[in-house]
Amino acid sequence: MLSRSIVVQSLRSIRDRFFDRRRQRNEESDGQGSSNEATGPSLDNLSVDMQFLIMTFLSPQDLCRLGGTSRYWQSMVRDPVLWKYFLLRDMPLWQSVDHLSVPQVKLTGSAVLDDSEMQLDYMAEYLRVCPACRNQWQYQPRAFESVTSFFQSLVPLSEPQFAMFGPGLEQLEISLMNTIMHSPHVLPVAGLPHRQIDGIGSGISFKYKDQHRFNIATLYSTNRTERERARLEHLSLRSKLFVYEEDSESNIPLSINSMFNQVCQAVNGFIFVANAETDRGTDREWEEECAQIRVMLDPAVGAVSRPILVLSCVSRETADRRRIPCVTIAHQLQLSSLPNPWMVQDTTAETLTGLLDGIDWLLRHSGVKL
């Protein structure tokens, strides 16, 4: 995190340069100099420290409006150090990030910007990835696309199917799927499972917004007894979903178990439930989860256009329990290297906060007209 003093120092240098240039222009025009400070009861006359404090309370939209009021504020608001500060400050608080909005810049807490970073437009980057700005810039279909969508709605479509897997299904104190099953006000159950696969997989149909049916095939790593024992004793189990190298203790999968090949080929997309609690395992577990996602999304199994929703899940939200930021989850899982559309959405197993936002994104990217 950049310190506030570094940002104030950068803003102060911009202010000094601005008024130096103004004084020089005045001297050239009428031979009379002007002071290096603004005068009168205006925002310009406040100290740089106070100006920066005010800007920290403004929304991105209001900051842009402030930059349009004068040349002075345009130069202050465009400061790359200021927007890098906002990026590092706000990213841990964002509840979602996707393949179109993941920051593409070097985000470190270094005290100064090197030459390469000074060329980056941190303001444009912030406005591109900030959730509040993303919501305002959502794609609006053109007229002919709306007509096409209407006619498509008259044709009955097959029920979209998604495969759900990941350690967040098994490692958390509160079961995400149990909460979903007992929360008809959030996602009403439209159909119970007709069969199970070796006790570790089943499909349940739900109804989104009381009209869009979709099916989730929940794929666990092993049966219920082994999962519960592993959770209580903090054991690491090899998932039966995957095939591993023989005579190796590594949990890096090589391919999907043939038993689940047909399921993974038939689905329209995937839901990966990540454990976002800060006391989760080691870097080795991140590596294993990256490999699991890539095996599931193998182009040999299905089209690269199939989306994957990553639910960054914790058991419950409390003041003393912090979660891993969704941007960090995306980085640890190396999602930016995937050719598939993806999204990371903060979710709470106890209340299902954020779940519907993720489901909405998943259905839209699976071709469902909402």
List the uncertain runs: 144-156
**Beta strand count:** 10
Oligomer: single chain
The best one-word shape is: elongated
Main sheet overview: 8 strands, mixed
Question: Would you list the SSEs in sequence order as H and E?
Answer: HHHHHEHHHHEHEEEHEEHEHEHEH
Overview of the molecule:
Residues 46-86 form the F-box domain. The structure is a single chain. The chain is an alpha/beta fold. Helix content is 40%, strand content 14%. It is built from 15 helices and 10 strands. It has helices at 4-30, 48-56, 60-67, 71-77, 80-90, 115-118, 122-129, 131-136, 143-153, 176-181, 224-233, 258-266, 283-296, 326-332, 355-364, and strands spanning 96-98, 161-165, 189-191, 201-208, 212-219, 242-243, 255-256, 269-275, 308-314, 342-348. β9, α14 (326-332) and β10 (342-348) form a beta-alpha-beta unit. The chain is elongated, with a radius of gyration of 26 Å.
